[in-house]
Design goal:
The longest helix is centred in the first third of the chain and has 27 residues. Helices cover about 50% and strands about 15% of the residues. It has two domains: about 100 residues, PH-domain like (Roll); about 130 residues. A hairpin with a 4-residue loop joins strand 6 and strand 7.
Length: about 325
């Protein structure tokens, strides 16, 4: 952008993206949805406050998705080429692939739950989120870059700033029955989120499925086959209940996103099983082999369900309300 300088922080998702730029006298927030972009200006003289609060943000960057797909393609190609699944080459292929994947999954969960935040900018008539500032270290750099610019235009508050904020409310001015005539946007009600039984059951099913699959990964028993399908069916039902409860305003939005991610991963694994018949071939003629649980896809399914289950526990324990 001509005449603009990008501030610290950038959201690069598979579909959504966001960034904040600074011009001569204003901040420009940019939100993109691949083929569409939205712009909003915040003049430095109108900014009342920029608030940052810790909040779990389970954002997966697009580069991680692309690298993960490349590694998965490479791993599947090598694994299919190994005729003996218990050979030394197959063992080292598993180690080389799963060690960095597991390390990144643990790092992502820890950072997303403990070192993430939500940034919000206030003016006299608006209150907007800045999705590009979603990590605590990014928020510190962002505030360090923006604070001198605002102070140069508005000056510095002398004395106790907390008493100044109490006497000068931030954002749209509240009046009885709504907002002041000067404000042009409604004030959203404070959400009353809580942990519902369906959310607890959904997280328990994720962890239970991962544990069950780990114990029966190489089993060819018919009961194991139907047990895996039972976990999948119950997970889908619990996800539907989560969608209904989140629509009614009872459940946290992060739990809905977790349910969507779980359904997407389940569909992708089923699709891979359909287009990769060599991974689901029968091990021994005449014996019942679970065609939906080949060794490779079973390992991937365990890691995904375990990671999503841990993320669900963190959402329940830490909360996701405003």
């Amino acid at each position: 952008m001509m005449g603009y300088r990008r501030l610290p922080g950038r959201l690069r998702g598979v579909v959504l993206g966001a960034s904040v730029w600074v011009g001569s006298d204003h901040l420009l927030a940019v939100r993109s949805m691949r083929f569409r972009e939205e712009y909003k200006r915040f003049y430095l003289r109108d900014v009342q406050a920029i608030a940052v609060a810790r909040k779990p943000r389970f954002h997966l960057p697009s580069w991680a998705v692309i690298i993960g797909l490349i590694l998965a393609w490479f791993y599947i190609t090598v694994r299919i080429g190994l005729s003996v699944t218990r050979s030394g080459a197959a063992f080292w292929a598993d180690v080389v692939f799963w060690m960095p994947v597991s390390a990144y999954a643990i790092w992502w969960i820890v950072v997303s739950s403990l070192f993430s935040c939500k940034c919000r900018i206030y003016t006299a008539v608006s209150c907007d989120d800045l999705p590009s500032v979603h990590r605590t270290w990014t928020a510190r750099r962002f505030l360090a870059a923006v604070e001198p610019l605002i102070s140069q235009v508005q000056g510095v508050i002398e004395g106790d700033w907390s008493s100044f904020v109490e006497s000068n409310p931030l954002g749209p001015v509240l009046v009885q029955g709504g907002i002041s005539p000067e404000a042009s946007i409604p004030v959203p009600a404070v959400p009353n989120y809580r942990t519902t039984p369906s959310a607890l059951v959904f997280v328990a099913l994720l962890l239970g499925d991962a544990f069950f699959s780990g114990l029966t990964l190489q089993s060819t028993a018919k009961a194991v086959f139907w047990g895996g399908w039972a976990f999948t069916l119950l997970r889908v039902i619990a996800a539907i209940l989560i969608f209904i409860e989140q629509y009614r305003g009872l459940l946290r939005p992060a739990m809905k996103k977790l349910a969507i991610l779980s359904l997407v991963c389940t569909g992708l694994l089923y699709y891979l099983q359909q287009i990769t018949p060599s991974l689901a071939r029968i091990a021994q003629p005449g014996s019942f082999t679970n065609p939906n649980r080949p060794l490779l896809l079973g390992q991937i399914d365990i890691v995904i369900n375990a990671a999503l289950g841990i993320a669900g526990l963190l959402i329940i324990l830490r909360g996701d309300g405003e």
